[in-house]
TrEMBL record:
This is Tetratricopeptide repeat protein. It comes from Rotaria socialis. PROSITE patterns: TPR (PS50005). Pfam families: TPR_10, TPR_12. Keywords: Repeat, TPR repeat. The lineage of its organism: Eukaryota, Metazoa, Spiralia, Gnathifera, Rotifera.
Length: 240
């Protein structure tokens, strides 16, 4: 018995009145005649109703699931939120790329945006693709390549957007994060300062400024300047 492994048993309650989740009892159609298999359609969504430990230990967990109807309010809210978060850009491949980023599948993300890069001529869209590719490279810990991609994105943005545009701030923020990952904290700090400068000149929500304060505080902390780190932590807390 491998003590590093645990068992998970899924128990699904089927409500025959829910027509939006088709299923079929395979019975004699299955290759495994001794098993009573049920096949659900691929788009089926289930609620996690409860999680238990039937044997009283941490070796086995039982997850109880219930079908979810299309009219379920939580499912509707989740669907609406997902659409809002992926609404930028009308290209289906782009929407897929955003969803895959959320799944942290960065190699697949790179494949998608490389394909888009080959088929896009609009400069603003190219800048956006470079930004997404840069984000994927951060996830793959390929920081030098990420920096090169963000440099391309910024070069285009500076030609097409005002210097205080939020898109530039987003790129600067990610570049600052990359430099922090590379332990080049002074350079990271310089980019977070650029972000803060843009945010102070642009109508933007306070939470975004608070996140920038958090990044600056973290950077000062890593540099060993705890007094300044405390100042920016306090600024962030005042906003939150």
């Amino acid at each position: 018995m491998n003590l590093d492994q645990i068992g998970i048993l899924f128990e699904i309650t089927i409500d025959r009145s829910i027509k939006s989740v088709p299923f079929a009892v395979l019975g004699g159609e299955s290759s495994f005649t001794s098993e009573k298999e049920i096949l659900f359609s691929m788009h089926s969504v289930f609620h996690v109703d409860d999680i238990e430990r039937p044997d009283g230990t941490n070796r086995l967990w039982q997850v109880k699931l219930k079908q979810t109807a299309d009219s379920d309010p939580q499912l509707s809210l989740l669907t609406k939120r997902s659409r809002e978060e992926t609404k930028e850009g009308s290209i289906a491949w782009d929407r897929m790329g955003k969803l895959i980023i959320k799944m942290s599948k960065f190699s697949k993300t790179e494949e998608i945006y490389r394909t888009l890069e080959e088929n896009v001529s609009n400069e603003n869209m190219k800048a956006y693709i470079y930004k997404q590719l840069g984000y994927a490279k951060i996830g793959l810990n390929q920081y030098e390549e990420a920096l090169a991609l963000y440099d391309k994105a910024i070069a285009i943005r500076l030609e097409t957007l005002p210097s205080n545009n939020v898109e530039l701030a987003n790129c600067y923020n990610n570049i600052g994060t990359i430099h922090n990952c590379m332990a080049d904290y002074s350079k990271g700090l310089s980019y977070f300062d650029k972000v803060l400068e843009i945010q102070k000149r642009t109508p933007i929500d306070d939470m975004s400024i608070g996140r920038c304060y958090d990044n600056i505080a973290y950077t000062y902390d890593r540099m060993g300047d705890y007094a300044k780190a405390l100042i920016f932590n306090e600024k962030s807390l005042m906003i939150k």
